Amino acid sequence: MERQRAAAGAPAATGGTGTGRGGRSGRPAAQARPGEHPDDRSGERPDDRPGPEVVAAAEELAARFAAAEPAEADLLAAAVFGAYGARHLGGAPRSVEPAPGTSWWHGPTVHHSTSPLFRPLGYRRIRREAPAQPAARPTGGGRHRKPERPDAAGEVRTAARLLMAHPLVTADGPHGAGLALIRRHAGALTERFRTLLGYRLTLGPAHARLHKAPLPGRPLPGLDPAGYAALARALAGAVPPAAAPPAVRALLDDWRPPAALAADLLTASPLPAAGPEVTVRRLLAETPVVLYHDLAPAERAHLLAAAPAEAERFADLLGLTAEIRAEGVALLDPADELTDLALPGPGTLAQAALLLAERLVEDLRPVGTDEAPPAVLVPDALIDGTLGDITDDYGMSAGWDAGYLADLAAFRRDALDLLHRMGLAAPAGRTWLLRAPAARYAPRAEPEPPAGGGRHSRPNVPAQGRVLSR
User: How far apart are CA 331 and CA 323, in angstroms?
Assistant: First the structure.
């Protein structure tokens, strides 16, 4: 698992750009009333031990974790701790937005930027692909020039991005510099998260927590049911951190939870049930891709009708841009920061997974279908053959992980798992589906030439791969 995370190239710190600028200008904790948790005490010291009711709740929760199956324990952890970060694809096509109803299979792509490691850059190509430089702005202004103050909307957006990437922010943790910014705009953040996503924001003397809804497939790294049980007990002080498993100690070092946060994690009430609109917004905000095919009828109807409006809301709050296609919607982060997995990315898995997706799309892209299918079935042998070709072509020259090159079964498993977690592939029994958004990383499909009737006309070639019906 450690090798998989390292090879995937996950960013070390996401969503925190610029948060340090406001790190010393917030109000004291005792004055931060908006969004404050009702159980917080302004005089409570961060090192106060949790009370007996918190210890009792931790023991009950630990028993539930220990008795659960691994998948159930992961989902319970997502519901209790909500410590997963948002996950979004990087990169946007350079061409203008295509006409409504354009399919991912045949629309603009980001193929030019996904694998620069494997395409040498000559001088002409560097000039062609280099982004335009912004016009120079005067930096002077004389001795009486007043310093520029960041606008409030920009500060709210920075704080919101930090909370979406790191829902637990503590004063002594790695993102503690952003806590003052969160406090400064606590009222606006509380209202925006409540109305848009149905999330609660609570503030304690030394922490801020964004209460997220349960989300399948977002376990805490390295923990099994026994590890979750140990984490619950360690948060309540019933187990010394030194006696906890290594993955638990790593989480405690990252969170550095004060007593108020431990109580918040172990005793907070669950979020109320969400309607179709909020459910769709949570999927858009937290997951790389939302396909209409995967939604319930009411959710699908809402997204089909309101996709442009939802895109504007998330552009305002989180600075995300929307890619609206015939099969669904993806919110992209132009800064390539608001994600807990990097794709495209520099690691072995990220590079191999994108090359695998690119070649599978070129082999299986639907042609001549009346409606764009959300996914196509991938022959199992094609995955093995394609990954073997990629490994032969790039493995040694790109310096890929030697363990993966020696164990292609593990390489296949982890590359497909990364594509699955990024919404580009999905398991289907004992085989796999290639989902339409994977085509954004392949060369754009060439238009079909008009069918001719002469002696040199080529017969129509049926689409390769079986199409998954809507």
Answer: 6
